[in-house]
Amino acid sequence: MISKDDLYIILEIHRAASVTEIKRAFRKLARRYHPDINPGDGQAEEHFKRITEAYEILSDPLKREFYDVNGFYTEGVLETNRKETNWGFSFQGFNFNRSNDSNFSDLFGHIGRSQRRDPQRGQDLEYPISITFEESIKGHKARISVVRMDPCGTCNGTGQHPGSRESACSGCAGTGKTIRTKGHLQFTVTCGECGGTGRSIIPCRNCRGDGRTSRSEILDVDLPPGVAPGSRIRISGKGNGGRFGGPAGDLYVVVKVGEHPFFKRIGDNIHCCIPLTLTEAALGTKIEIPTIDGPAVVRIPPGTQSGQVLRMRGRGAPSLLNPGLCGDQYAEVRVVVPRIADERSKQILRELAKLNPEDPRSKLW
Ligand SMILES: [Zn+2]
Ligand SMILES: [Zn+2]
Question: Which one of the ligands is nearest to 152 CA?
Answer without folding.
Answer: 2
